[in-house]
Design a protein that fits this description.
297 residues, alpha+beta, Jelly Rolls, 2 domains, globular, binds fe (ii) ion
């Protein structure tokens, strides 16, 4: 990661000698500063989309509609609603998942420390066995989603007694989530809203999770997952949350994420300039250093 960033920054420094690029770079930095954070976990994609909208309105207003309309493929079908799936795997596979979930090595990265603090969970990303299962499940997810999907990342999530998952909406590299319950010592409800239009920067200025949860227009539904059941939902368009755990000491879940086929560039903000054939987006995309960090002058 460090190497990629160093290369990028070297390239950007070279491009900044071009006065036209430099002028756009300043507009891009201003747009990033104006939008700021949206306020919920995993909101970087929508934040960057809001930044790009603001930036294009300033430097290429004729391209703004092309950009905003170009995300339609990441919206769910109009009548989509989450689906609970029973008896996902046979008994032997479920037993193998339990064993793998107990024995998987937990690394001690910075990301792990953040998962511990923000969610009360240990995480194992893209375990080879679970990657295989994710591909096996993909046709089931496609049938429910009503579209061809490609597997994105997955992770094992071992929630402990401090488990929590505040209201949020996912980055579209997790457009659909197959949330599978491995084992638990008490049911831990998940709440999912109906699919909604993506929230804007203006909406985010007044972001109030409890007001959203209490608002009947969002149509939150409670789901009680038991071992070997799963919930498929459109996490990048449906608000979802779990209340802090109270009833039990652990809940082990597997999250398989899927993206609509053909959307690999669309879900990666660094590729937007090429994907939309809008070269003026390049100085902005150059500031999207990685999934989390923006480079600013
Ligand atoms: Fe999520």
């Amino acid at each position: 990661m460090t190497g990629v960033r160093e290369t990028l920054e070297t390239d950007v420094r070279a491009r900044l000698r071009d006065p036209a690029y430099f002028a756009l770079h300043l507009e891009a930095a201003a747009a990033i500063r104006e939008v700021g954070g949206l306020g919920w976990y995993d909101s970087q994609f929508l934040r960057r989309r809001e930044v790009a909208k603001r930036y294009l309105a300033a430097v290429r207003p004729d391209a703004l509609a092309t950009f905003t309309d170009g995300f339609a493929a990441l919206q769910p079908p109009p009548d989509f609603r989450e689906t609970l799936i029973d008896d996902v795997f046979d008994a032997a596979t479920h037993a193998a998942i339990i064993e793998a979930s107990r024995t998987a090595a937990i690394d001690t990265s910075t990301m792990q420390a953040r998962e511990n603090a923000a969610f009360g969970r240990d995480v194992v990303w893209d375990h080879p066995f679970f990657l295989t299962l994710q591909e096996q499940v993909r046709p089931v997810a496609e049938a429910i989603a009503g579209m061809p999907l490609v597997s994105s990342y997955n992770f094992l999530s071992r929630y402990g007694a401090q488990g929590k998952c505040d209201l949020h909406m996912d980055h579209p590299d997790a457009m659909f989530t197959f949330d599978y319950c491995i084992a638990q010592d008490a049911v831990w409800p998940i709440y999912v809203s109906r699919p909604v239009d993506w929230p804007t920067a203006e909406f985010a200025q007044h972001f109030d999770p409890e007001a959203i949860i209490a608002d009947p227009q969002y149509g939150f539904a409670e789901h009680l997952l038991r071992p070997n059941q799963a919930l498929l939902f459109n996490g990048s368009s449906q608000w979802h949350y779990r209340r802090p755990k109270q009833a039990g000491g652990f809940c082990h879940l597997l999250f398989f994420h899927y993206v609509r086929a053909g959307c690999a560039d669309l879900v990666e903000p660094r590729r937007w300039a090429d994907h939309f054939a809008i070269p003026e987006l390049r100085p902005l995309c150059d500031l999207f250093l990685d999934g989390e960090t923006d480079g600013l002058p």
